[in-house]
Amino acid sequence: MESKLRPKVVLWWGIGLTVAGALVTLLLPQLAYTVALQPGTATGVDQALLTLVNLVIQVVGQVLSPLGVALIAASVVMAYVGARLPAATPAPGQAPVGR
Predict the structure, then answer these.
(1) Cα(17)–Cα(63) distance, rounded to whole angstroms?
(2) What's the CA gap between 68 and 18, in Å, rounded?
(3) Sign of dihedral through CA atoms 85, 71, 8, 6?
(4) Are 92 and 24 in contact (CB under 8 A)?
(5) How far apart are CA 99 and CA 96, in angstroms?
(6) Exposure of 95 by Cβ count < 10 A (0-12 exposed, 13-18 middle, 19+ buried)?
(7) Could you list the pLDDT tens digit for every one of the 99 residues in the chain?
């Protein structure tokens, strides 16, 4: 059984998570402040909600970007190792592995 983890797939996931982490960190706090500062809103409730949203955004932003960068590095290593190792061939008289 072959693994579905291919370097190209891992690379694209890494790029996507890195970009998503950057966008979450840059755009969502501004959006939360805009929503919280609407006229006619309760100050105490909005401040607590804004603090909670800010905390969640910081945690998600600090997890997504490093995870994406690590996946990009892993895809480079996977591609390098895959290029350096020859494909596994069965010995004469043996059935192929995984069939």
Answers:
(1) 9
(2) 5
(3) positive
(4) no
(5) 6
(6) exposed
(7) 466 678 899 999 999 999 999 998 888 878 777 766 666 666 666 677 778 888 888 899 899 999 999 999 999 999 998 888 876 666 677 766 654
Q: Which residue's structure tokens are 């409730």?
A: 45
Q: How far is CA 7 from CA 10, 58, 74, 84, in A?
A: 5, 29, 8, 14
Tokens coding 69: 């960068």
**Contacts for 33 with CB less than 8 Å, ≥ 6 apart:** 50
Q: Which residues contact 98 (CB under 8 A, 6 or more apart)?
A: 1, 2
